[in-house]
């Protein structure tokens, strides 16, 4: 995954160098490494996949068989259905709850409780500030640490130490390669916190708007038929909609370019609508700036069933996508969406980041800041 930092630096600064100062706060923030960010919750339907990291100020919920190619950072709860998973770590400000056969490629850190269903596999540490409750047949490759009780179901395997702040309850046939310790003196790390990025996204949206109106796209007529646009700055006085089963072709002419869409109201890709790239280089950028600053507007983004968008979406309001939708980047970039004030929802069988998009990280297996008291 090319970080958002690289995405913005490559083209916008070359077109409008004055944008650098306004965008610098974004470039210095952890949003540079996200595929999805929401100031409210994120929900992903069954079998939906995201190629990069996802972050929410509140809850993140993955339905069965949904997968994340990077990290999950939830300000409150992280809930994964059966056979869901993440290639990176999972942090939850309160509870982490995993259904059967969930796979986590890094560590798991919960601000309160961690509850694991049967046959869960965690390739790093498992840490919770209160209780850890583990069903049968679970495997944890790192250490386990709970601020209070640890309860382990039958036949589970632990490659490291298991520490409980109070008591341990161990089922039949459990294997612990390290040391089992009750009343442990190990200190549990603080609950993870997700920083609210509403003001940051708003400032970035303002900077993109100040690039200018460029070519106006008339809301009532644009997108009713198939459309083609070359690189440039585009704006609307109201909404921008691509009608059902229509295409918007972005023609890059084989040279690096930037498409910036400053949208005064809302952005809609109706069912089956698609963005198509023609001769667009990998160093190009596509930015959808859904401002919602027209009188009475909400600044939301909507993708109907089967719709496909390319690039990064900065949305003042919610991002709502139906089943079988796609948000992808250019080349091996994962693309993504950011909601400044609201939630992000994807229906079943959707994709954020084309298959094979690169996240460029090694999942950490150890939870930071675990210390011993001597």
TrEMBL record:
The keyword Signal applies. Gene3D superfamilies: Hexapeptide repeat proteins. Keywords: Signal. It holds the Pfam family Ice_binding. It comes from the Bacteria. Belongs to the ice-binding protein family. This is Uncharacterized protein. It comes from Neptunomonas antarctica.
């Amino acid at each position: 995954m090319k970080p958002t930092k690289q995405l913005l630096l490559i083209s916008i600064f070359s077109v409008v160098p004055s944008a650098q100062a306004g965008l610098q706060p974004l470039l210095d923030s952890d949003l540079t490494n996200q595929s999805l960010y929401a100031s409210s919750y994120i929900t992903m339907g069954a079998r939906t996949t995201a190629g990069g990291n996802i972050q929410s100020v509140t809850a993140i919920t993955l339905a069965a068989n949904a997968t994340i190619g990077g990290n999950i950072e939830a300000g409150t709860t992280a809930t994964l259905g059966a056979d869901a998973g993440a290639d990176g770590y999972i942090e939850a400000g309160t509870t982490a709850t995993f259904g059967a056969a969930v796979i986590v490629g890094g560590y798991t850190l919960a601000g309160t409780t961690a509850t694991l269903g049967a046959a869960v596999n965690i390739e790093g540490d498992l840490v919770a500030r209160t209780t850890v409750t583990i069903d049968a047949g679970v495997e944890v490759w790192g250490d386990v640490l709970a601020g209070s009780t640890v309860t382990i179901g039958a036949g589970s395997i632990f490659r490291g130490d298991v520490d409980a702040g109070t008591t341990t309850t161990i089922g039949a046939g459990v294997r612990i390669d390290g040391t089992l310790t009750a009343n442990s003196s190990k200190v549990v790390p603080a609950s993870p916190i997700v920083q609210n990025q509403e003001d940051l996204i708003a400032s970035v949206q303002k900077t993109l708007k100040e690039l200018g109106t460029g070519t106006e796209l008339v809301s009532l007529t644009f997108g009713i038929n198939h459309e083609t646009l070359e690189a440039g700055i585009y704006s609307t006085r109201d909404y921008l909609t691509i009608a059902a089963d229509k295409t918007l072709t972005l023609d890059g002419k084989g040279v690096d370019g930037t498409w910036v869409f400053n949208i005064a109201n809302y952005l809609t890709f109706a069912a089956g609508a698609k963005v198509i790239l023609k001769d667009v280089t990998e160093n190009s950028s596509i930015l959808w700036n859904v401002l919602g600053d027209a009188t009475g507007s909400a600044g939301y983004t909507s993708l109907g069933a089967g719709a496909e968008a390319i690039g990064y979406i900065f949305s003042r309001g919610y991002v709502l996508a139906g089943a079988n939708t796609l948000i992808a980047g250019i080349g091996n970039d994962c693309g993504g969406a950011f909601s400044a004030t609201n939630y992000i929802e994807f229906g079943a069988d959707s994709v954020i980041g084309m298959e094979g998009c690169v996240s460029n990280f090694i999942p950490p297996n150890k939870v930071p800041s675990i210390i011993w008291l001597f």
